[in-house]
Request: fold
Amino acid sequence: MSKNVLIIVFTEMRDKLRKWREDNHRNSEQIVDVGEELINEHASKLGDDIWIIYEQVMIAALDCSRDDLAWTCLQELKRQFPGSQRVKRLAGMRLEALEKYEDASKQYDSILQDDPTNTAARKRKISILKAQGKSAEAIRELNEYLEQFVGDQEAWHELSELYINEHDYGKAAFCLEELMMTNPHNHLYCEQYAEVKYTQGGLENLELSRKYFAQALKLNNRNMRALFGLYMSASHIAASPKVNATVKKANVKYATWATNQINRAYQVSYARCLL
Amino acid sequence: MAPELLLDSNIRLWVVLPIVFITFLVGVIRHYVSILLQSDKKLTLEQVSDSQVLIRSRILRENGKYIPKQSFLMRKFYFNNQEDGFLKNTKRKVVPPSPMTDPSMLTDMMKGNVTNVLPMILIGGWINWTFSGFVTTKVPFPLTLRFKPMLQQGIELLSLDASWVSSASWYFLNVFGLRSMYSLILGQDNGADQSRIMQEQMSGAAMAMPADTNKAFKAEWEALELTDHQWALEGVEEELMSRELDLDGMFSKELPTGIF
Reply:
């Protein structure tokens, strides 16, 4: 991957980092490569940008187990912003990375004492529980968190993931519904919701899942997963003994249409391969 | 027609331009002083939570048609239920923030006054005293005689047209005229924008009033009662299958496939 990153000019490096930061990429190895060079060679030219780059590189370094780099970044930030809650949270994250969960938890508690509305610290505490494998407790804490901060979409998504891991599909569907309401044009949430409904099973859920697969396809015509999902849910309903003839006929029609589209997609990909 | 007066060009050099500079610089200084004196507004957990609940209820009303009917009804029930619906039964303690009882509002008001009104009065008075006794400029539209004592302070000529004004009026013209210059140089929402602050003071107390929470809840409750569920996905399969899928650009290397 780093072969593609042939960046030489300092401004290009800085712009790349900014783009990754704004798009929320998690390509930690690249960030560490580019960021480390930027910090070591071009620190003076960065001006005030350097602080946010320190933060970005530190988190990437924690991802890559580069504790030395993370420590240097943290020291610089602590020196510049003593007493900042944002820096305290980064210190807590470093402790988490070193698996010193007790110390990290204490760190986050101290942040929350100063500012009970600080969402970042609360979320980190929940991720400590998740890292320790205590999913039941994590779910409980996350539920409490969401009771106060109903609008936090990241948290809803995390909760839906936790529920899926616990096979509690009903509650996962609830969380995904919240996400679908706040992001009605995001085809991925529709598709995930449809998959959860499909997994729950039962005729009603299958019908719902077929509808939401269709919606995901409507929002994004190229979503292959939704296309396959549509085919599977439609054929399942058609094969079920409990449906009447009209419903069966309609679903067979849907399944055939889906098959045709899948064939077309394979032809497109085959044509591309020949190019 | 009123006789055209020819003003000494020294007036332009030594009066008109200095007043513009003074007003502008005072405005910039005011902006930075207001930044220094700014106190952080701390929101309580309850306020944050309430505002998010209101947002969620509004989203439910607007986008409820994208989720199944059962889910919509479940949420509507949660909010509006007679016995224990959230919007119906949550009463927040209401403390209207009058300036007397709330010390932080008092200091905020004082700071606002000091940074905005006081300099204006002081500098206006100083300019009036320094640049007095002569006519500064002429406003391009005719004015009635009633404006004379206001705009011609210090000039005791009964027969002078009211369009000729003194330096104090030029100063006030500048204060309001340089507003757009401030937006250009200091960016939007700057502390030197006096007229905006005066408008805020006139329109009443600050936006985030706690008393509104109860009213906001009631308003949301009513709005939610009226909302019906029109499922947007009724005919989605037919709509989808009315035409072939647009597979353009699929499998191309440039397309960002998937999420990270």
The interface with chain B takes residues 24-27, 116-117, 148-152, 174, 177-178, 180-182, 184, 188, 208, 210-212, 214-215, 217-218, 221-222, 227, 253-254, 257, 261, 264-265, 268-269, 272 of chain A (CB under 8 Å).
